[in-house]
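User: Structure with manganese (II) ion, tokens only please.
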Amino acid sequence: MCQPASVRVCTDEPEDIAYIRNRSIEIGEEAPLATDGHTIHFDGANDLARDKNATKYLVPKDMDLDKKLNQIERSEGLREIRGYLAGAMAGRQMYVRFFCLGPVNSLFAISCVQLTDSTYVAHSEDLLYRSGYEQFKRLGVGGGFFRFLHSAGKTDASKISVETTKRRIYIDIAEDMVYSVNTQYAGNTVGLKKLALRLAIRRADREGWLAEHMFVMGVHGPGRRVTYFTGAFPSACGKTSTAMLPGETIVGDDLAYFRVIDGEARTVNVESGIFGIIEDVNSKDDPVIYQVLTSPGEVIFSNVLVRDGMPHWLGMGRDLPTEGVNYAGQWHAGDRDESGAVLHASHKNARYTVALRALANLDPRWDEPNGVPVGGIIYGGRDSDTSVPVQQSFDWAHGIISMGASLESETTAATIGAQGVRTFCLMSNLDFLAIPLSKYIRNNLDFAQPLASQPLIFGTNYFLKGRDGSYLNGKLDKGIWVKWMELRVHGDVDVIAAPTGLLPKYEDLKRLFRDCQNKDYSLDDYVEQFTIRIPENLAKLDRIEAIYRGVADTPPIVFETFAAQRKRLTDLHAAKGDYVSPLDL
Ligand code: SPV
Ligand code: MN
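Assistant:
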């Protein structure tokens, strides 16, 4: 169908992996930078983020997927996308790659095959996923493969996809197959990332496990104790920088599978690398990743500014050059795009791609076949005015419903569209849901039933602002919140019950700030940050309840949980007014 000039089937052997890396430079999808191992890749000016509108499920006529999910009738969609793919690889080489999601030889493992005409996609996957050719030989064609077919489509002299109005990402749930065409941005093309997540959510639903948009990290407690946490944050809301917190260890930063093994909740990193947002990565806020990005070693930079062979990005902690080359071509400070908006030196969704093995803080258990035990689960959004910086749910169902299923976030540059608009983002997984919302919530609620000990659930908010509009917390305060959560998992500290959850006590945070960061945390700061904002919390409940009233088959416990939360908030309001200090609870 795609009519490539030739086909290169790659094995797990180093020479095949090197072939892709070299070929990418040879044909110009990547260019070498001055530092050994570093390359730059540019996506097109209209192709710098996930395209939610062009991403659709192919759904057979007689099937009813949730109406909140973007879909197209299967035969119509197949006709359209196969039309775009027909002949799309003419004159180019097609690469056939085999990978594995999750640790190989494990219960979690899912075999994948990617066909692509993009060396950038194929190279990225070498950094981001475990090799799977040997597994493919072992399992053969009956191995339950996820399959991905991608073509960049028509490209210009700089190898940029030009027909972005014909960009399509279609997910054929009937065949575990995803088609992607006329795009290069990794979130639309790297099959094993967000395209596989959609298929995995369906497989997990059938088989009784969970596929989540979550990091996995080890938080280091007193003594030599390590407690594992997973966290769901919408894109560009502090997920990677939480997983990379100094002093802690990373298992993964984006995708996690969960299973119950011997009565225990276990999780693995689906990937083996990071495709992370580069903006604001600097030596002060993200020292570990900054070190990797400024040292020799394999790194793909995408959509940053390049000057004299060096990558530059917003928030890197240095003055940026006033000219260079970026995704828009030659760039000078003050340049504007067609719509008159200022063109930044680097794009807000500019990223880096590195293998986990490059990281000094990689958790030693990151690749264990049975994963790591889950101590706690964190849900966090970009919320300037409602939720406290950190709180624990009353129990599993309260956490799943009032934190995960109620997650909202102000939109960011990780998806195409306006930024700063408050949107509903269920478990930060809504973009990738491939089953009805009610079913997904039910699966999350049910997951903990067989567990002897259920992970604790926490809600965080790194983006709370004060009356003057400035952020109430520093970027590294999240390092204290994870330490506090770790202590909670082991029952080492007490809490204050608020209507929305269980709050930390001032003295515990004060001690943690002093011991971990040598900082004086004032009582005034604590009170301002942890004041329960009742009108804002009630408004949020109104918004979320209205959404679930429009969701078919929402489990009744969802509405019961909202009603109980509303009653706690209105009772406190009657007694103490709009804004209640944690010291008055
Ligand atoms: C995200 O946007 O959530 C990412 C990057 O992790 S993408 O590959 O675009 O999904
Ligand atoms: Mn993500």
